[in-house]
Amino acid sequence: MCKLYILRHAKSHWPQELDDKARPLSEEGRQDAFILAEAMKRKNYIPDLVLCSPAERTRQTCAIVYKGSDVIYDNRLYLGSTGLLYEVLQSTESRYKNIMMIGHNPGIHGLAKLLVGRGESALISEIMMGYKPGCLSVIECTCADWRDMLPGGNRLIDLMVGEEISRSR
C-alpha cells in the first residue's frame, strides 16, 4: 500500500517587481506551513520522496514541511495540468511508497479530485469544493506501483489546511 500527500503551496506574497515563479511565501503562509508541518509530524505523515514545483513559494513550503533530502524539483509541476501531474506521479519509481507532490492550482486540486474515490463523505465534499493555499490531502493507494494508480480508486484519509489548524488551536 502506498500513501500520497498532495499539497498546494502555502499563501504567497506577490511584490509587483517579481514574476509569478519568483513569488515567496507571505508571513502568514510561512506560519501556516509550520503549523501544517507540526500536524504532519504528530500524525506521522512522513514522505520518503517529494516531487516539487521549482517555483519559490513551493520550494519554501517544501523546506518547512519536509526535512528529508529526497526532493525532485520538476518544471512540469509548475502550473502543470491535472493530466500532466498524474503522468509525473505514474512515472515515479515504485521503490518510493510515500510520496508528496507540492504544486499549484488548478492542477494540484484537479489531481486530488481525480484520484479520490473513497473516504469520509464530508472530506470528499470539502475537497471537491476547493483547494486553499496550504491544503494537504492524504490519500491511501492500494497499488504497489505508481503506474497502477487509477483515477477514483483511492481513499482520502485526511484533509488539512494550515490556516484552519491554527484557528482551531
Mind explaining what this structure looks like?
With 169 residues, this protein is an alpha/beta fold. The protein has a single domain (2-10, 22-167), classed as Phosphoglycerate mutase-like (Rossmann fold, 3-Layer(aba) Sandwich), CATH 3.40.50.1240. It has 6 helices and 7 strands; from the N terminus they run βαβαβαβαβαββα. The chain has helices at 27-42, 56-65, 82-90, 107-115, 121-129, 162-167, and strands at 2-8, 49-52, 71-73, 98-103, 116-119, 135-141, 154-161. It has a 7-stranded mixed sheet with strand order 3-2-4-1-6-7-5, with helices on both faces. α2 (56-65) links the parallel β2 (49-52) and β3. α1 packs parallel to α2 (56-65) and α3 (82-90) packs across α4. The longest helix has 16 residues, at 27-42. It is globular, with a radius of gyration of 15 Å. The model has no long low-confidence stretch (mean pLDDT 93).
| Topology, number of strands | 7
How large, in whole angstroms, is the Cα Rg?
A: 15 Å
Briefly note the structural class of the backbone: alpha/beta
How far from one another are the termini?
32 Å
Q: Please describe the biggest sheet, giving its number of strands, its sense, and whether it closes into a barrel.
A: 7 strands, mixed
Question: Low-confidence parts lasting 5 or more residues at pLDDT below 50?
Answer: none
Determine the number of helices (DSSP H or I, runs of at least 4 residues). Answer: 6
* Mean pLDDT over the residues: 93
CATH overall fold name: Rossmann fold
Q: Tell me roughly what share of residues is in helical segments.
A: 25-40%
Order of helices and strands: EHEHEHEHEHEEH
Strand residues, percent: 15-25%
Strand order of the largest sheet: 3-2-4-1-6-7-5
The CATH homology group name = Phosphoglycerate mutase-like
Tell me what the CATH architecture is.
3-Layer(aba) Sandwich
**Tally of discrete structural domains:** 1
What's the CATH first level?
Answer: Alpha Beta
Q: Based on CA inertia axes, which overall geometry fits? A: globular
